[in-house]
Amino acid sequence: MSIFILGIESSCDDTAAAVLKDNKVLANIIAGQDVHKKFGGVVPELASRAHQQNIVPVVDVALKTAGIEKIQLNAVAFTRGPGLLGSLLVGISFSKAFAMGLGIPIIEADHLKAHILSHFIESEKEGYRPPSFPFLCLTVSGGHTQIVVVKSHHEFEIIGRTLDDAAGEAFDKAAKIMGLPYPGGPVIDKLAKEGNDMAFRFPKPEVPSLNFSFSGIKTSFLYLVRDHLAKDNQFIEKNKTGLAASIQRTIIEVLMEKLKQASEKTGIREIAIAGGVSANSALRENLTEVGKKNGWQVHIPEFSYSTDNAAMIAMAGYFKYLNHDFAGQDVTPYARSKD
User: Fold this and answer.
1) Any idea what the Cα angle at residue 84 is, between residues 175 and 222, rounded to 5°?
2) H or E element: which one contains 237?
């Protein structure tokens, strides 16, 4: 008998709902929040208010798109964390009430682990197959950068993480310094395609083991732009594509170097990426090229599952459902990852 899971994602500024039939997506609906653009970043209080407005319509559309009735659902999975507490509370509170009304269990999902598990969503892509255990996953987003050994659907070991800023944060900060619109990461990606990635050089951090640091790259970018603007107030406009390409190349080189070290250290050649930054076209291209040179089996998520979405939450919920791993009505959100 098929299992239907409703997934709810509300960790930041996207209100999302998805319906999965086993590991197949029937609906994956996302409502964004344009209110943050004029502030150049997410405003937590505005985000939680927008989630309250969006959550019911998004779930309604997801169920209608999936073509099922709510009484067919077996469980409701939701993002417990990490994320903005106000935003998470909206998703958790809705999930508790909705599931209680239907008399079905609730399932908590860790946002970062769910990104990784999105690789197990059924895909119609030619040649698709999910990663084999164990595999390495480079999880890169605006708030996190990790290298994870994935041993099963339930067992994850973090072997490298950022000591300060995340890769996605470095992209967004560079974009903000250049006066680009929010969110800046995709804009950097687009501009970089037209620029010389060797136009500017930024020092790469020397961090022990498999950990990362991106604060120095951010600072170096800031000082370079500041110093050149002092001599030419049109510097950014004249060098926009070169700046974008150069900072992108530097960040990706750091990510790839650590990933190669992780593969050599563990002997694992099944390599995946996940998280919002995995949508970056240059990162995808670099991983594919490095994978060919090193004999890796590379797994890159579909674009729709790279950024925040509820399908990945439902996928994580599905595996927990099979394990009878349910949450209680006393469950509360967490802002930072517990691992």
Assistant:
1) 20
2) helix 235-266
The string of pLDDT tens digits covering residues 103-115 is: 999 999 999 999 9
Is the distance from CB of 88 to CB of 16 less than 8 angstroms?
A: no
State the burial class of residue 137 (Cβ atoms within 10 Å of its Cβ: 0-12, 13-18, 19+): buried
- Contact predicate 81/47, CB 8 Å: no
Q: How many Cα atoms are found within 13 Å in the side-chain-facing hemisphere of 285? A: 7
Helix or strand run (H / E) with residue 161: strand 156-161
Q: How far apart are the C-alpha atoms of 269 and 272, rounded to whole Å?
A: 10
The pLDDT of residue 62: 98
pLDDT at 120: 98
Given the structure tokens 């994978």, which residue do they identify? Answer: 291
Asked if residue 82 has a cis previous peptide bond (ω within 30° of 0), the answer is yes
CB atoms within 10 A of CB 46: 15
pLDDT at 89 over 60: yes
**Domain spanning 132-301, CATH architecture:** 2-Layer Sandwich (3.30)
- Compute the distance between CA of residue 161 and CA of residue 334 in angstroms, rounded to an integer: 19
For domain 4-118+308-322, give the fold. Nucleotidyltransferase; domain 5 (3.30.420)
Give how far the C-alpha of residue 6 lies from the chain's centroid of Cα atoms, to the nearest Å: 19
pLDDT at 266 over 80: yes
Pull the structure tokens for residue 99: 């599931």
- Helix (H), strand (E) at residue 259: helix 235-266
- Tell whether the model's pLDDT for residue 338 goes beyond 80: no
